[in-house]
Amino acid sequence: MTNQKTSHESDPAEMVRLERRADGVAILTLNRPPLNLFTLEMTRVFDRRLREIGGDSSIRSVVLTGSGDRAFGAGSDIKEFPEYFRTGTVIETKLRYENEVFNRLEELPQPTVAAMKGVALGGGLELALCCDFRVGASDLRLALPEIKLGVYPGSGGLVRLPRLIGAARAKEILFLGDFIPADTALHWGLLNQVVPTGEVLGTAIHLAARLASRPATAVQIMKRGLREFETMSRDEAVAASFA
Prior knowledge:
The chain has helices at residues 7-10, 40-54, 81-87, 90-106, 123-129, 157-165, 167-176, 182-188, 200-212, 216-228, 234-241, and strands spanning 16-20, 25-30, 61-66, 71-73, 112-116, 119-121, 133-137, 141-143, 180-181, 193-195. By secondary structure, it is of the alpha/beta class. It folds into two domains: 7-212, 2-enoyl-CoA Hydratase, Chain A, domain 1 (Alpha-Beta Complex), CATH 3.90.226.10; 214-243, no CATH class. Strand 1 and strand 2 form a beta hairpin.
C-alpha cells in the first residue's frame, strides 16, 4: 500500500495559497485541513505570502480564509511542542517569530477581511484579530481556551482583543476560555457580519471588492493612522494625520 501525501505535505508552499483576482482582491487560504493548524513551516510560508502581498500594489484588499468547513484555524499544531520544550526554544523559535508574522498581517497596507467558518480557536482567533474586518458563519464558534491548559494566548490576543471589544468582555473570553457563539461575537463587536455558512466567503469577497474599489492611498493612510493614533495624544494624532 502506498502512502499518499496530501498536497500541502508534498509541497509546503501549498500550506498557504494565494489567489490574485482581476478586481484587486487577493484570497489567502490557510490550507492544512481539517483544522488548519499552524506549524513552524506553515508560519514561514504564511510570512512569505504576506511579504508578497505587501509588495504588490495591484493587490488592493485581502480575504483571509481557511480550507474546509470545520475551522478557520484552530491554532498551533501541538505535535511540534515537545521539541520546543526539550530544547527550551518555544519563545525564541515559535512565539517571537509568530508574533512578528501576525504583526505583519496587521500592518499590511491593504485592508484585510477574515472569512471564518467552523471554529476559530487560540492562535486561529488571534490571527483573525489581526484583520480589519471579520465575517463569520452563523454556526461559527470562537474561543481562546489557553487558560484551560494553564497558559495564556501568546500571539497578540492579550493586546488586540481588549482593544477591539473592551476589557470586561475580553476578560470573559480570556479568563474562562469558553466558546462564544457567532451572535454573541457580533453583539460584542468581535465580528462585523454574521451570515449563513455557505455565504461566508462570498460575503467576505464582496466586502473586499468594495474596499478595493476605494482610493487605495486614502484607505492605506487611514488604516495606518488608526493603528498608530492609539498610542498618541489627540494633538499628536491630529498633527500626524497631516504628515
